[in-house]
Structures are given as structure tokens and as C-alpha cells.
Amino acid sequence: MFLEVKDLNTFYGASHVLQGISLNLEKGEIVSLLGRNGMGKSTTLKSVMGLVRPRSGQVVFNGNDITGFPSYKVAKAGIGYVPEERRIFPNLTVLDNLMMGVKGGVVDAGKQGGWTIDRIYQHFPSLKERATNKGSHLSGGEQQMLAIGRSLMGNPDLLLVDEPTEGLAPIMVQEVRDVIAEINKVGVSILLVEHNLKVAMYLSHRVYLMGKAHIGFSGTVAELDNNPAAREKYLEV
Ligand SMILES: Nc1ncnc2c1ncn2[C@@H]1O[C@H](COP(=O)(O)OP(=O)(O)OP(=O)(O)O)[C@@H](O)[C@H]1O
Ligand SMILES: [Mg+2]
């Protein structure tokens, strides 16, 4: 197993927001984590990424126990993160924003499948057109592309992507969806949190549905498709 999350328990103060979360992902997969607001999807990603520290449980990535690692070490181990808020630097150009994603200040194109600015521009032509524009001048969809592109510059083997299509116009939803499919095809495994069920079903190999603080369903997309009761219980339908 490429990523194995075992029985995670995470608290914010006294509130127990992850109560025994277990999930896994095989190399090459897109796995989605779905559920209504406030169930703990983002906290699950943050617990994997080392942005919040789980009180118990284990995160094993590529055979290494990374539980409780600070986020820069998780990144070094090969996990990238695209947060819900995107966190584009508004006063930096698109190119400079991309360079901010480079780990240790070195473009590691020597790594097999390593990402370079040129390669990012091939996958994201709209970023190339806007290379010298400031982050603040981009549309929501372009900012999302930039956030994904920037995380790729760190050469992740696994990307955690939180709500990439949130608030985007339908045409941009499709573009973001397609770029996620594309980067998965070139070898990046993806753990996706998504509100748009269509997008998640289109992209995913497997899905997990979260109820409050726990996983309520796991299965293939076909299994979810054949389970209206699970969709009704855990998703807005
Ligand atoms: N920094 C924080 N401090 C305290 N409570 C928090 C914090 N972040 C999230 N929570 C609470 O933890 C629970 C899980 O939040 P989380 O953001 O993981 O949910 P989510 O499934 O990602 O929701 P959404 O779909 O709205 O993004 C919620 O009840 C939320 O209010
Ligand atoms: Mg969230």
C-alpha cells in the first residue's frame, strides 16, 4: 500500500473531530474523500500532511512511518498539498509563485519525471500565457491551476488536493478536473477531497464517504453508483 492511514484520532482542543479514520491508497490511484460540511475531510488531509498532529493512529507512506512528522518532512517524503484556500501569493508573478513550490530552492528535474517550469506550462497553457501576471490578477480557476502547478514543482509522488473545483465556473470545473486526470496519468497519485460528486466519480478509482468524524462507506465508484442509500446518508443528493 502506498499510503496507509490507520485509526487516526485528531482533536481541536476538546473536540474529537477524527474518531478512528482509516483509509488507504495504492500507487497510481485517485481516491476521493467525500462528505457533507464539517465532517472532517480537510482535517484528515491536514493530519496526513502534518499540519495538525493526530493524538493517536498511524500514517505510513511508501513504507515509512511519517506519523507526527512536521509538514516540511512530510513534503520531503514525497507528499504535496493543495489547500482549500489555495494560498497564492498575490503580489508575486505566476512564474514566481511556481518557483515558491520548489523544495530547497532547487528545481529537481533530474528526478525521474521531475517537474520543470516548461513542463508545468505544457500541462497548464493558461499559466504560460499569464506567466508575468501577478497572482492577484488571476481568475479563481487560474489560481487553482497555479496552486496545483506550484505543488507539482516539489515533485510529489502523492498529492492531497482539497476542494479544487469549489466556487469555480462550470467550464473551469472541467478544466481543473481534466488537469487532475492528466497529472495522475503521468504518475502522481491523488487523494482528493471534493464536493462535486460528478467530478469525484469521474476522476476516482475508489471513494470514501465521511460521516461526522468517521468513515461511513468505502468502495469503488461502481459500488457507490449502486448504493443510493449510502449517497443519501452521507452526501447532498
Ligand atoms: N482550527 C480549528 N479549530 C477548531 N475546530 C476546527 C478547526 N478546523 C476545523 N474545525 C472543526 O472540525 C470539524 C471538521 O472540520 P473540517 O474542516 O475537517 O471539515 P470538512 O469536512 O473539511 O468540512 P468542509 O466541507 O466544510 O470543508 C468541524 O466541526 C469544524 O468546525
Ligand atoms: Mg474542508
Quaternary structure type? single chain
CATH homology superfamily name: P-loop containing nucleotide triphosphate hydrolases
Number of strands: 10
Strand order, sheet with most strands: 6-7-8-3-9-10
Total domain modules: 1
Give me the Rg, rounded. 17 Å
Computed structural class:
alpha/beta
Low-pLDDT sequence parts: none
The secondary-structure element order is EEEHEEHEHHHHEHEHEEHH
Please summarize the sheet with the most strands. 6 strands, mixed
**Shape from CA axes?**
globular
| CATH topology group | Rossmann fold
Topology:
Layout (H helix, E strand, L loop, with lengths): L2 E10 L2 E11 L4 E6 L5 H9 L6 E6 L2 E2 L5 H6 L2 E4 L11 H6 L17 H7 L1 H5 L10 H13 L5 E5 L7 H16 L3 E5 L3 H7 L2 E6 L2 E7 H5 L2 H7 L3
Parallel strand pairs: 3-8, 3-9, 6-7, 7-8
Antiparallel strand pairs: 1-2, 1-4, 4-5, 9-10
Helix pairs in contact: 6-7
Bound molecules: adenosine-5'-triphosphate (ATP) and magnesium ion (MG).
Magnesium ion (MG) binds next to helix 1.
Walk me through this protein's architecture.
α6 packs parallel to α7. The protein has 10 helices and 10 strands. It has a 6-stranded mixed sheet, with helices on both faces. A hairpin with a 2-residue loop joins β1 and β2. Helix content is 34%, strand content 26%. With 237 residues, the chain is an alpha/beta fold. It starts with a strand and ends with a helix. It has a single domain, classed as P-loop containing nucleotide triphosphate hydrolases (Rossmann fold, 3-Layer(aba) Sandwich), CATH 3.40.50.
